[in-house]
Amino acid sequence: MEKRELASGKIQNELFLGLKLGMDRKAFYQTCWDLNQQGLLVNGPSELSVEYRPTMPSRFPTKMMFYPRFEDERIYLMPIEFTYEGWAPWNEDLKAEKLREDVVKLFESWYGPGFIEVYNEDKSQIVFVKMDGNRRIRIFKKHLSVVRAEISDLPVEKKLKGNTNS
């Protein structure tokens, strides 16, 4: 799938809320500032995080925290972490597996269908993946209460990994 999509030459840079892969750092900050002024985004709990509360398919209140990684002052990777606000270990409705399903449905509404389930031999690690040209989206359970998504410009990511391994 990866080879086919990269060979297609398609460029998909859309992220969410007007943010894009390849967006420069200044434009990222300006977009976040504008969305903050509209009441859509707030500062997250850590120094380098932005918090958004998306409307999830399940309707459970959810926090979405994100902050991009830059290469040459441009976004190439957007790590995102989702948590249900009411999560507790005893609340089965809000466990990470349910949240992962919810995030996949949310992302299908944003990026269209086509997520495939990929897992290791004992199925202890399950990742939902979608490729659209250069854009790879991965969704997986990070731990008991957190689901992580990573949206990357795969050619840039591969180049960086190649440079760090040489």
What's the main sheet like?
9 strands, antiparallel
The stretches of 5 or more residues where confidence is low (pLDDT under 50) are: none
Average pLDDT figure: 93
Q: What overall geometry do the principal axes of the alpha carbons give?
A: globular
N→C terminal distance: 26 Å
Query: Structural class, from helix and strand content?
Result: alpha+beta
The radius of gyration computed from the alpha-carbon positions, rounded to a whole number of angstroms, is 16 Å
Annotation field: number of helices? 4
User: How big a fraction of the residues is strand?
Assistant: 25-35%
Helix content: 25-40%
Order of helices and strands: HHEEEEEHEEEEH
Number of strands: 9
Q: What does the model show?
A:
By secondary structure, this protein is α+β, with helices and mostly antiparallel strands. It is built from four helices and nine strands. Strands 1, 2, 3, 4, 5, 6, 7, 8 and 9 form a nine-stranded antiparallel β-sheet that branches. It is globular, with a radius of gyration of 16 Å. The mean pLDDT is 93.
Short description:
The protein contains 4 helices and 9 strands; from the N terminus they run H-H-E-E-E-E-E-H-E-E-E-E-H. The chain has helices spanning 2-7, 25-37, 96-111, 154-165, and strands spanning 41-43, 50-52, 62-66, 69-71, 74-84, 116-119, 126-132, 135-143, 146-153.
Chart the SSEs and their pairings.
Elements: H1 2-7, H2 25-37, E1 41-43, E2 50-52, E3 62-66, E4 69-71, E5 74-84, H3 96-111, E6 116-119, E7 126-132, E8 135-143, E9 146-153, H4 154-165
Antiparallel strand pairs: 1-2, 2-3, 3-5, 4-5, 5-9, 6-7, 7-8, 8-9
